[in-house]
Amino acid sequence: MKVLNLYAGIGGNRxxxxxxxxxxVEMNPDIAKIYQDFFPKDKVIVGNAHQYxxxxxxxxxxxxxxxxxxxxxxxxxxxxxxxxxxxxxxxKYPDMMLYEEILLLKHYFKGKWCIENVIGFYEPxxxxxxxxxxxxxxxxxxxxxxCKTREHYGGVDKLQKLKGFDLSKYxxxxxIKTLRNCVEPxxxxxxxxxxxxxxYEELF
Length: 204
What we know:
Blueprint: E1 2-6, E2 21-26, H1 29-38, E3 43-46, H2 49-56, E4 62-65, H3 74-80, H4 97-108, E5 112-117, E6 129-131, E7 134-138, H5 156-163, H6 175-180, H7 185-203
């Protein structure tokens, strides 16, 4: 099973995947190096995941994408306003790469796909399923699972334990942000397995 893992980070969603051939795309070369250390058998590309998807989507059986989430986040919107209701900084346009990728995969890709993002501050333009404190768009049914905690405001030690990554030997990166960006490995495994089950049902 050929898998494309976009905006790969250090590979939270990918950590528990077995028996798959993975191509990972990550823009930040320092983060990509850490990913390669954890997953030496994966093909790791340092580059623009959004463009790579457009150029190569037909080459894969399953595609996972986690496009930038900050401009959609409820936290980002709350942070715009001060306690007295004034604006602390100017709002930004939500990054629409999210919806560009959903529409591309929905209408052109013949394999299975899943796009993950934060629960946003607005009603989604395309309805997702919601569980484990994330939005997920996919072309197959994903049975919900519970996420006990994301430790989103925990320190490095708590996040490393939860996500299963030891970053102690790395420097020059924002470890809190890097770990927060990780989808919980159990969630990533669950979604991959759901896609495989659907693929096998269609084949047999």
